[in-house]
């Protein structure tokens, strides 16, 4: 599909900006493992503080990269599958807001005025520009949803009785989830945190801010994940050489995410005493429920890949596994997606531990948690995003992939690194190793009275994995920017694989309409969060003064 110069430029900028910033994000990821392994026994290195680096790592990797990519990929899927481009003016307004917001927040973080981590929990206090930039990034990402809805409604009028293209359904579901969940964090930023940061308020309601953040924070995980799910359902079977086992399975999975992504955030607050046990129990049930679409996806993709293996001439019970195109340089996206899926198996299993109230108490605020979410966020999410960024760059510029042999090993090198890294973190977490902590200052400093030698093996294992991940990231940057600055080889175009379904499934109106699912979504959110918010407002306690990560005393 030919795309206009305007849309092509918007998408390419939305890919180039976050991938460029990702260099800084991955560097600080490596530095976190170096600090935590006790290699550095100080609070900063190269004039960047530990918590400053941790904030940059989290914000760039988890907020900036994911938001920019989701918008760019959304533009591409809407344009390709509906055969109509998004509004030019809306696309550029969105891009300008997101880039400006990112630059404002980046200034605050790089200047050392916003070392508040990506969760920006109060009473950690950031410079006002950090909150203003965050709000601009969020608002900028809202604009495309309303524009895409206009395009979708126009398509629907012209194609009555036809199925919504699965990729379009996934994109719209993802951004509806994003819009709903970011309403809470927008309120937190603009009403609670920004006036406090600007000095208009002396204190802030910590528990209310935490609750509003996690209304957003766990749904954010699915905002990260759903672009990868779109690729899994609509593109991976074709790249594997087969067909999608069930189109309706994908629709069910996407709509279940719409229902259950937002109201599960309370499971991040199991240790908060001011939230009732009944609210936590509801969150536990919903969290186990949100595993259902992942199980549906696991079965559907396994069946799709098995069919592809048989099409490639496999024999025997598991012979299909060996027939898939793992190292095909001309089909590199398969490697990026299959490596992510392997990591997601472990990420999903460890996530069930976090969802359980009893087991969560064992691993809460330990290194287990970043071990788990690196298997999910740094697994299928990250690999799908960087792989598709390269794929769209390749198509929209008409440039050949730079060093294709190096490119095809990147996802597997990353896979090995994450498995080692996360194993080290989770092993340490089971022994009580804390998260968000510069262990090299105390617990892994042999000269300190708090030295914990039992954490040396786990942190060294995490360091080894982190080094491998860093090496894989550097290889990817060589490929991406080498492709970006190489000469044009073919005509530019936007092309996605058109995966057909193995089963000729009939049209089911329930799976092709948003209205009933949106109503159910609102009802479930109200059931989960009205009692929780009432608990928080009733038992929130007094407001808190600012607290700096480097100071043990609030207000200093």
From TrEMBL:
Signal peptide: none annotated. GO terms for cellular component: membrane. Pfam families: COX1. Keywords: Electron transport, Membrane, Respiratory chain, Transmembrane, Transmembrane helix, Transport. GO terms for biological process: aerobic respiration. One of its GO terms (molecular function) is heme binding. Residues 13-517 form the Cytochrome oxidase subunit I profile domain. The chain crosses the membrane at residues 12-30, 50-78, 90-110, 130-154, 166-193, 213-236, 248-266, 286-310, 331-353, 373-396, 408-430, 460-485, 516-534. It comes from the Bacteria. PANTHER family: CYTOCHROME C OXIDASE SUBUNIT 1 (PTHR10422), CYTOCHROME C OXIDASE SUBUNIT I (PTHR10422:SF40). This is Cytochrome C oxidase subunit I. It comes from Chitinophaga caeni. The lineage of its organism: Bacteria, Pseudomonadati, Bacteroidota, Chitinophagia, Chitinophagales.
């Amino acid at each position: 599909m030919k795309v206009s110069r305007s849309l092509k430029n918007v998408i390419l900028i939305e890919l180039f900006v976050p991938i460029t910033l990702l260099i800084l994000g991955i560097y600080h990821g490596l530095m976190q493992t170096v600090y935590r392994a006790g290699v550095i026994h100080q609070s900063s290195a190269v004039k960047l503080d530990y918590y400053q680096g941790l904030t940059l790592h989290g914000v760039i990797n988890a907020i900036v990269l994911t938001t920019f990519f989701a918008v760019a990929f959304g533009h591409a899927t809407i344009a390709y599958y509906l055969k109509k481009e998004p509004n030019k003016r809306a696309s550029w307004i969105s891009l300008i807001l997101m880039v400006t917001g990112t630059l404002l927040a980046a200034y605050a973080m790089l200047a050392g005025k916003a070392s508040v981590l990506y969760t920006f929990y109060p009473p950690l206090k950031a410079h006002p520009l950090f909150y203003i930039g965050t709000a601009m990034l969020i608002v900028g990402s809202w604009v495309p949803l309303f524009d895409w809805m206009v395009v979708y409604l126009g398509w629907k009028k012209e194609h009555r009785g036809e199925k919504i293209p699965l990729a379009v359904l996934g994109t719209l579901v993802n951004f509806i989830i994003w819009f709903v969940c970011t309403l809470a964090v927008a309120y937190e930023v603009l009403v609670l945190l920004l006036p406090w940061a600007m000095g208009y308020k002396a204190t802030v309601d910590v528990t209310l801010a935490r609750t509003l953040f996690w209304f957003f924070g766990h749904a954010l995980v699915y905002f990260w994940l759903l672009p990868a799910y779109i690729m899994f359902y609509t593109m991976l079977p074709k790249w594997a050489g087969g067909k999608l086992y069930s189109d309706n399975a994908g629709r069910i999975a996407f709509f279940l995410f719409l229902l259950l992504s937002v109201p599960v955030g309370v499971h991040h607050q199991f240790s908060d005493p001011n939230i009732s046990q009944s609210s936590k129990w509801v969150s536990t049930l919903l969290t186990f429920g949100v595993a259902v679409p992942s199980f549906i996806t696991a079965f559907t993709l396994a069946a799709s890949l098995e069919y592809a293996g048989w099409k490639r001439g496999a024999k025997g019970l598991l012979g299909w596994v060996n027939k898939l195109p793992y190292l095909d340089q001309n089909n590199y996206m398969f490697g990026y997606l299959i490596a992510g899926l392997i990591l997601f198996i472990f990420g999903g299993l460890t996530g069930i531990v976090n969802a359980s109230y009893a087991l969560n108490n064992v691993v809460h605020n330990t290194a287990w948690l970043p071990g788990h979410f690196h298997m999910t966020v740094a697994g299928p999410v990250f690999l799908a995003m960087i792989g598709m960024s390269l794929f769209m760059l390749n198509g929209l510029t008409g440039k050949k992939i730079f060093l294709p042999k190096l490119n095809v090993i990147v996802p597997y090198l990353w896979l090995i690194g994450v498995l080692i890294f996360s194993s080290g973190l989770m092993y340490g977490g089971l022994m009580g190793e804390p998260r968000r902590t510069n262990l090299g200052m105390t617990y892994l400093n042999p000269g300190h009275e708090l030295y914990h030698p039992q954490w040396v093996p786990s942190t060294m294992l995490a360091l080894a994995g982190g080094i491998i991940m860093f090496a894989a990231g550097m290889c990817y940057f060589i490929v991406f920017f080498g492709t970006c600055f190489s000469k044009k080889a073919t005509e530019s175009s936007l092309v996605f694989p058109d995966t057909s379904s193995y089963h000729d499934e009939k049209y089911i109106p329930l799976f092709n309409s948003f209205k009933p699912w949106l109503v159910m979504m609102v009802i479930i959110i109200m059931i989960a969060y009205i009692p929780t918010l009432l608990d928080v407002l009733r038992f929130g306690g007094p407001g808190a003064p600012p607290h700096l990560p480097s100071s043990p005393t609030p207000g200093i």
